[in-house]
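To: structure subgroup
Subject: Chain for Friday's discussion

All,

I'm putting the inputs and outputs inline so they're searchable in the archive.
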Amino acid sequence: MSGWHRTKCATIARVAVSDALPRVRREVLLVLAVSLGQSAAYSLVYLIAKLTEPRRLAEQTTALNVSQAPGRPWLDLSLQLLGILFTVVPALLAVHLLAVRGPVRPTLGLEWPGRRVWSDLGLGAGLAAVIGIPGLGLYLAAVALGVNTQITTANLPSVWWQVPVLILNAAANGVLEEIVVVGYLVTRLSDIGWRPWQVVAASSLMRGAYHLYQGFGGFVGNAIMGVVFALLFLRTRRVGPLIIAHTLLDVVAYLGYLWLHDSVSWL
């Protein structure tokens, strides 16, 4: 290929990339607007509402996994399952959009079952342990300092589907958050030319923002977790271990509260 042809091809490629940037930016904003960006906006409003209460944050309670139809277990179960199903839809949309934009690692390390499944499980479990214990300490410190609400993580009725639904909720949260705010967002921001530190900052701040409903401790703790997860994804390009870690963290938080809150005073 002559030098003139190479220059022409390079010019065409730059123009194509330049034309694609506004479209990719719009895509990112839309994906966030129907998923975790929307949650961040609501979380900010919820935090303002709690800050304007006469009680301080530490005297307020944030309830997770609540009944959708009290006293009607089958209707409640139906609504819980629908909520779980539609929680993961934005993650599936994000994976689809990555795939149709070309070969930019569309699997995100999700090609299960595969050779990496055991290493992903091991890394995910180790990551959950590393994040979980300091995270619990940070939560207790934030409540003691009065900058976070008390979190009750399991408020479903005592019926046969209580534990399975809590586990499914944990898995759905892991899939949604790690695919959208790490796998998708990190990939797309890198595509449009953001530097690694900017990508990590955006991903971690977004994670902290949609946890603001818990208080400032929830923001800080999740933002720190977001830095670790984003850096790990940039290194491995695999979101599978992050989903496993997140799911395990939530399962322990939900079931631990369910089984221990009557006997452990600080839960």
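Points worth raising on Friday:
The radius of gyration is 21 Å.
The first helix runs from residue 3 to 33.

D.
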